[in-house]
Amino acid sequence: MRIGELSRDSGVTIPTIKYYLREGLLPPGAPAGRNQASYDQSHLERLRLIRALRDVGGLSVTAAKEVLDALDEPELSAHELMGRAHQAVLRDRGSDALGPEDHEWTRARADAAAEIAQLGWRVDPDAPALDQLADVILTLRRVNRPDLLNLLPQYAAATLGLANQEVRLAAADREPAAVMTTVVTGTILGEALLATVRLLAQEHVSATLAEERGEGCEGDGASGSDAASGSDGETP
Amino acid sequence: MRIGELSRDSGVTIPTIKYYLREGLLPPGAPAGRNQASYDQSHLERLRLIRALRDVGGLSVTAAKEVLDALDEPELSAHELMGRAHQAVLRDRGSDALGPEDHEWTRARADAAAEIAQLGWRVDPDAPALDQLADVILTLRRVNRPDLLNLLPQYAAATLGLANQEVRLAAADREPAAVMTTVVTGTILGEALLATVRLLAQEHVSATLAEERGEGCEGDGASGSDAASGSDGETP
């Protein structure tokens, strides 16, 4: 198919498709006459995956490219690919305001490792997720809410149960390519699914408690269909 | 204290502090001579909360301002404030590629509502989280991984258990201001904590399975300390 048809079928604009081609997120089409290229089903599927990683996974273009590059390395094991997906997700989250040069952070990093060790989890000591956990621990301390960390064991128990399902879902796939997309979607889209379901669970519990407390609760709380949208500034 | 001291104590640069003052995320200091203002502990605490929402919560400046504005509305109930926090989080996630004009999305939105109704959860029919759930459902269908939705009941059970702890943690606070920051941190930082612990749980399960399968697993998988950083492009 031509780029116009690819754009129609994927819902991605032609300038964006050309941008993905330039950045190497999307492999080039087959030459079809001067200034023309022909694309196939694989391009359409790749475009849908890119949009999934960007729109729902919230990945930056750089992070999305990392994941796609890993997908294209046939020698990677499912475990290694998951590691790459984790790296990509965490890359976007790395905070410059926090970091190893800060001795408070170093303490939080040690506490993060200790918390996970206490769970008996098999995690690489250099896992970037431990750095992220240190960021969260340090941040909760800085906003004087270290008590939220008391929920860590419950979070751990809940996510361990889910991880068993998620990882085995991938392992269940026969065909290697299917394993890979399952790992990527399970890691990145699964996080979006979990985060969204969590908000709904919170609304349910909060609405129930609000009624118990006799608070007015005509859905003006956790509902928000009336919220005005705003444009975003950026930090200089 | 002067702005220089506020910058030192908070770790936020002076230009960024001035930007937050301009954008109204940080209330002005007390006048102290020409072109001078004096700041106090409340400014320091607000700055730390802003950084927490931005760095770890991943909120845009617009979304962070929404949350902070809600924090400053004393008449809001905890339930309403949580709703505002949810709106802010979801605002950043709204995808333009997906949306009500798309009839596939409309179907996904109906399925999302049906899934939650089946759980018996008390959720406002207009809750933005249902729109987000529709985005995730539609996206999983587009990348041909609707099977991930089979995990929805497990995700729901896990998050309901956590939400009971999270929401009651806030309800346990006596002082209103404490309730509010607990709601905000519990909603937004709790999501970061959960997402991070989930990655660690996945690494643990994946490493264990990889060993069972006899795959090499010297931490080159889910570890990623060796990953090179890359700069990010943006979609035109």
UniProtKB/TrEMBL annotation, chains A, B:
PROSITE patterns in alphabetical order: HTH_MERR_2
CDD domains found in the cross-reference section: HTH_MerR-like_sg5 (cd04780)
Keywords assigned: DNA-binding
Residue ranges of domain HTH merR-type in the record: 1-70
Chain positions covered by the region annotation Disordered: 211-236
Any GO MF annotation of the entry: DNA-binding transcription factor activity
The protein, known as: MerR family transcriptional regulator
InterPro entries reported in the protein's UniProt record: DNA-bd_dom_put_sf (IPR009061), MerR-type_HTH_dom (IPR000551), MerR_fam (IPR047057)
Comp. bias intervals (Low complexity): 223-236
